[in-house]
Amino acid sequence: MHTFEIRDQFVLDGEPFRILSGSIHYFRVDPSDWHNSLYNLKAMGFNTVETYVPWNLHEPRPGEFDFAGGLSLARFLDEAAELGLWAIVRPSPFICAEWEWGGFPAWLLQDRTMRPRSRDPKFLARVASYYDALMPILVDRQITHGGNVIMMQVENEYGSYCEDKEYLRAIRDLMLERGVDVPLCTSDGPWRGCLRAGTLIDDDVFVTGNFGSRSAENFANLKAFHEEHGKTWPLMCMEFWDGWFNRWGENVITRDAQDLADCVRELLELGGSINLYMFHGGTNFGFMNGCSARHTHDLHQVTSYDYDAVLNEEGNPTEKWYKLRDVVRELFPDAWTADPVTKTAVEVGAEKIRLTGRTGLFENLGVLDAEPVSSLYPQTMEDMGQSYGYVLYRTQIERDTSEPERIRVVDGRDRAQVFVNQQLVATQYQEHIGEDIRYALPEEHNQLDILVENMGRVNYGHKFLADTQRKGIRTGVCVDLHFVLNWEAYRLGLEDVSKLDYAAGWAEGTPSFSRFEFTIDEPADTFVDTTGFGKGVVFVNGVNVGRYWEIGPISTLYVPHGVTRAGVNELVLFETEGHVSDSISLRSAPLINHLEKEGVE
């Protein structure tokens, strides 16, 4: 049985220990690639893997838990143990992580009397139920039980959100009551205000900081905070940012490899421990991308979570990997290192990919949601029991004038396409929703359809609990000056596209599904090239591999080899803008476009 303690340094089996860790989120990496990613972490000379745990994937509906397949946290930790890697697990109900609503399940938004991420008893009861299912997996894998988990986190960057110590203690107690007995920690920005608000230092919960440079300065701040509270703890950066995430319509952010190596060297020479965020970033498959909060115009993140990390999105080593291995070899000559494992991706030209069918969204509403929700006023996505994807709201409106009518979508998120008699009238995004749409109704009686997309909820900051995190139409739709009644809502989570009717027809310019087939000799990584299409999502063999959008900066979607198969594969592209093509291609590398818009907000 191994032991791990936090004294004035980390102590493993009675000997001083430096944590050299890297973040790999099992839920962002296909399980067929877990071994390669973990092996490459070990081969670089590191000794620990860190991961968050996403509540929203593990409890997609209240009381329904999923820890199987690609969500098998147990298998991921066991694979790490087999390679001789220790593990830090961050099972806080909130993870941030540029992940949809910071990992909170959207169904929490149904209860407007509950305040998530607070001491609210109703919220804590939901966390307790979740932890009842989660903690047995982790408890059995603690180092104190013969496993490889050496530390767990109570909350994540809480000092950047609130200062409710009673809440923090409640989360800690939920963990302790379920058998967690390894050291607990928090991670926050390394300045006093953030540390004071977000830590439980007086309760002996270990305090770490998050930063990506200026280690001497940040460690000095962290040490001063420790000493202020009478602690002589070791210094650790729980998130050393080696790259950054990307958002639609902005250039890809990169970090120089030598700069990263120099900064990591500085931290290690100061005697600190490190967790690289990210070691392997992976992919925001499906609808799981997060959103950066801004005053008016929130900025949604892209599907790729490449992060310019040590391993690229596909899981292959970058220049950063080799430079960091050199640092480890120099500073820790006794550490085991080796050459990395790599993969290759396949390319399939458009001439070899066959269009087998196209069908319209309007023609398949009954297939995608056989029981639409009827209501007097439009309801939010969450109130209808839906978490992600799209909603198609439908009603009938009369023509009162030969002049253009005034149509307004009042209080909706995130993006609305307005159709009259299945003809696109307007597209509005975020801050423009609610502005007048002037349109002359062509018939005495007309069908009004509004397709609303949830583009991802805020994962960090002051808008985390804002009403804008409820998606769809929240108030109603006005024609002239009055609200229109009697709506049907089709919930389009697109969880199963296998039953689409490709004989049902399609009208040009309307949202559609295009089905393609491609053949490969064996399962292989590839990248779907969405150049020429507008906006939507792609499914490969029924798996939602993520969103695409013509505004860039990335024009491909990564498909892991674990999703493909030898022989014929199916690719379905859901396109909302009416941009279609009878051909599509697969690339062997991502396609990144340099945009005129520079920098980030």
TrEMBL record:
InterPro entries hit by this protein: B-gal_1-like, BetaGal1-like_ABD1, BetaGal_gal-bd, Galactose-bd-like_sf, GH, Gly_Hdrlase_35_cat, Glycoside_Hdrlase_35
Superkingdom assignment? Bacteria
In this chain the Beta-galactosidase 1-like first all-beta domain maps to: 378-492
Keyword Hydrolase among UniProt keywords: yes
Q: Which residues form the Beta-galactosidase galactose-binding domain?
A: 511-569
- Every Glycoside hydrolase 35 catalytic domain range: 9-330
Give the record's keywords alphabetically.
Answer: Glycosidase, Hydrolase
The text of the family note is:
Belongs to the glycosyl hydrolase 35 family.
Protein name, per record:
Beta-galactosidase
